[in-house]
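Handout for the seminar on molecular recognition.
Each group receives one record of this type.
Step one: identify the two inputs.
Step two: read the structure output and locate the region that could contact magnesium ion.
Step three: write two sentences on what you found, then compare them with the reference statements printed after the record.
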Amino acid sequence: MFDALSKRFSDVFGSIRGRGRITEENVAEAMRAIRTALLEADVHVEIARSFCDEVYKKAIGAEVIKTLKPEQVLVKIVHDELTALMGPVDPRIPFVTPPPTIILMAGLQGSGKTTTCGKLAKMVADRHAKRPLLVAADLKRPAAIDQLEVIGEQIGVPVYTERGHQNAVKVCRNGIREARKTDRDLVILDTAGRLAIDEEMMAEIAKVAEVTTPHQIYLVLDAMTGQDAVNTAKSFNERLELDGVILTKFDSDTRGGAALSVKRVTGKPIKFMGVGEKMENLEPFHPDRIAGRILGMGDMLSLVEQAQQQFDADEAVKLEKKMAKGQLTLDDFVDQMRKVRKMGSMKELMKKIPGMGDQMGDMDIDEGELDRMEAVVQSMTPKERHNPFIIDASRRRRIARGSGADPQDVSGLVKSFGQMRDAMKAMTGMSMMQRMKFGSTLSRQMMQGGGMPTFKSKSTATKRVVSKKDRRKQRKKRRR
Ligand SMILES: Nc1nc2c(ncn2[C@@H]2O[C@H](COP(=O)(O)OP(=O)(O)OP(=O)(O)O)[C@@H](O)[C@H]2O)c(=O)[nH]1
Ligand SMILES: [Mg+2]
């Protein structure tokens, strides 16, 4: 999402950067380019126009022209304006007392309602320690109940169903009663969608809303449908008291118009975004971070937030100490890998690091490599995991046999581990900024090497990571 728009913005700012002197005309010209970029991203024409007017006014007011770094001032104004366009939004779910909090999900067919019900249930269970109940109130499609049951099982959340029933309102009511009886904190009602807005669907969902009086009504919108999504939002908003929108398929290659227009058109913010098909692929929608992403500033905050959920602070301190002493073991290493993996695919993660997004291209990181690497480590003795350099040829063959790998894979892993340990040791003396820079060079080199450096790595990619020269430089820096 936003790839084309990001590119256009960076061209616009680039052209300003190249100019020695900035005039009012230059700013106006930039605004025209931005307006075209927004229209191309499928942003509503009125919104694009008022957006540019607003930026122009502020840019002139802020005397962008007279500042030494006009480009930076302009980026800031555009960033703030984009943030204002998509926000404000309170990304929390307001839980009520006494429970249960009732959430009604509405949306067109295929927009991602059922999937999002599961994702939301998982999110409240994992992050807020709540006990959700899913209610299968889509009685239009025979397979809909099964689909929700499969999802429920996958995430370990109970699903309330009534087969052979024709009345969605009753199923919802009974589901809520069941939630009270079984002491659940939250009920999520999955309703039926239609191909297009029709009166029957609107009447049904309005009736469900009237009878169940949900605390929150979320409209699930498919980002890929662009302006249609915005029109859908408008229609639903006229019939239901929406509390927010969940924009799905954010991971798709869409132009982003829906994300930028929904709030302005309906007055209702996007609260969450679906970023993939997996159950953990739901994230709070932060307009400022999205604006930053559009402007190519990376999405570090989301990355940090994601990382925080997985990495325990105490553990990090312990690890840091081990790293400094070069005492990192293969166990620690695999443990970290597992955590990184839990956070989502490596590629998704790397994309969020500023400057990494455009370098990712089509490069893919083979997660199967991680599995194979784990298998090798698991075939080692605890002593070997602690210090894999004691592994001799016969043990190497034995470990390879035990894990279904080649003996070269085992030695490759040990070698790369040594390099990684050195690299980490070198990193400990650095400041956060230096580390980020170093880390991103490291990961880039890892990827240019064709994959993780830790396994089957016949490439010399990681060797470059801490060359002697770099190490000397780092030592110097530390001394300073
Ligand atoms: N890539 C991607 N796919 C998604 C996302 N959310 C949902 N999907 C996919 O979209 C398809 C439709 O999702 P459903 O959850 O069945 O949609 P629905 O709104 O319940 O559809 P109906 O019940 O037929 O109205 C599925 O294949 C999902 O895996 C997302 O955020 N990213
Ligand atoms: Mg469904």
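Reference statements: The radius of gyration is 26 Å. The pocket of magnesium ion (ligand 2) is lined by residues 113-114, 138, 144, 190 (CB under 6 Å).
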